[in-house]
Amino acid sequence: MEQLNISEVYKAAEVLQNVARHPKLIGVTKINPEAQVYLKPENLQYTGSFKLRGAYYKISQLSDEEKSRGVIACSAGNHAQGVALGATHNGIKSIICLPAGAPISKVEATKALGAEVCLVPGVYDDAYRKALELQKEHGYTLVHPFDDPLVIAGQGTIGLEIIEEMPDVDAVIVPVGGGGLISGVAFTIKTIKPNVRVYGVQAEGAPSMADSLKEGERKKLDSVSTIADGIAVKEPGINTFEMCQKYVDEIVTVSDDEVAAAILTLIEQQKLVAEGAGAVSVAAAMFNKVPIKGKKVVCIVSGGNIDVTSLNRVITRGLVKNGRDCTVTVILSDKPGQLSKVCSVIGDLGANILAVEHKRNSSNTEINGCKLHIEMETRNQEHIEQVKKGLRDAGFQVEN
Fold first, then answer.
1. Residue 48, φ and ψ in degrees, nearest 5
2. What pLDDT is stored for residue 309 in this prediction?
3. 146 vs 223: CA distance, rounded Å
4. Helix, strand, coil: what percent of the chain each, to 5?
């Protein structure tokens, strides 16, 4: 890639002025009490994701001949919607290759924006190979989701908006999949304010950019597995890898449980719905994955297109991670009054029993013993430990 010039980002901002939303920063939040954490809610973008910016800008710069042949893209969902909207808005045909496992909500949203959808078995990389085949066969222009200088410039407009709204920001935390968003944001911010720290965040189950930076060369993962499907990319881009080497301070990873907790926190505290990929930046701030103590920090919430059918499972995982839902196993003698005593201890300590499973004749209990599996609603991890201690002090054996 030729050296990206900051003028390209400013040009993209002009093109997107009346196309993309420019959501204001939200904060100060209570996401991390040791830092001033603000949110850049790109989940409120027209298509529910920042991807609209880069896709639209790329399409706007095509020649008339390229526009006449149409465009093709591959995506886990969000880039697809950005390309579909940009192409339809400019009167251009669009074909989108999506992984067959993409959330139904994203598939249907892409179709609704005017694109033809081609579902491909596998993950993003498989969809990408199919897109290349169709591009060669029909002469479409490929709108790459992250490894294109014009797409990167479009994503960089987020960095411009952050600096303009908060000139004294200390750090920006950015979700990372293929690296288009963080490349644009880091390049823009480091060019204007070199002292601002830029941190990237990937899912533990898809750490392609993090591993590549550690090794000093691009690495391709054998497989990816994470609830953050929007950043489940096996291999970073050629251009984005080089830009991350040059402009990004550090890339860290977060677990799926931490992502789920971040999604729950955004819903409860900010009334914002984020998808897994959009919430990884918040997870990094919540669980101190990056050094932000005493700093003024912006977390980019990059998308909100979470499949509603999976939202309940994610919330449940988040409740467990935050210590709001807990299941304990109590071993006790199978005689009258024992269950009542257990419930009394739990109730006196302020926990709310949600379900009780009573098991006799377990192979690892005494003949006259039984097991109680008790699911409780609790306040936090400290409260869980208080309940366990209370049960033990009352003479009951707590297994976990």
1. 80, 10
2. 80
3. 19
4. 45, 20, 35
Around Cβ 208, how many Cβ atoms within 10 Å? Answer: 25
Q: Is the peptide bond before 28 cis (omega within 30 degrees of 0)?
A: yes
Can you give the pTM of this predicted structure?
0.87
Find where tokens 């601002």 sit: 196
Report the distance separating Cα 197 and Cα 49, nearest Å: 23
Low-confidence ranges of the chain (pLDDT < 50): none
Whole-number pLDDT of residue 367: 63
For tokens 């940009």, what's the residue?
A: 86
| Measured CA distances, 156 to 129, 141, 159, 164 (Å) | 26, 22, 5, 13
SS3 assignment, position 6 = helix
Give the model confidence (pLDDT) of 169-210 as tens digits: 999 999 999 999 999 999 999 999 999 999 999 999 999 999
* pLDDT at residue 159 in the model: 98
Residue 323, SS3 per DSSP? coil
Q: Going edge to edge, which strands form the sheet with 369-377?
A: 352-360, 369-377, 325-333, 397-398
Nearest-angstrom CA–CA distance, 103 and 99: 9
pLDDT score of 1: 64
> In the prediction, which pLDDT does 13 show?
98
Three-state DSSP at 375 gives strand
Structure tokens at 296: 């003024």
Half-sphere exposure of 269 (CA within 13 A, CB side): 19
The single-letter code of the amino acid at 389 is K
What are the CA-CA distances from residue 121 to residues 8, 101, 107, 203 (Å)? 36, 8, 14, 22
pLDDT of residue 76: 66
pLDDT value at residue 114: 93
Asked if 370 contacts 359 with a C-beta cutoff of 8 angstroms, the reply is yes
Both tokens assigned to 371? 């097991």
Position 363 scores a pLDDT of 57
Compute how many other C-beta atoms are within 10 angstroms of the C-beta atom of residue 106.
28
Radius of gyration of the chain from its Cα atoms, rounded to whole angstroms: 24
User: DSSP states of 216-255 as a string?
Assistant: TS----S----S-GGG--SS--HHHHHHHHHH-SEEEEE-
Q: Which residues are catalytically annotated?
A: 51, 302
Q: Do residues 234 and 220 touch, judged by C-beta distance below 8 A?
A: yes
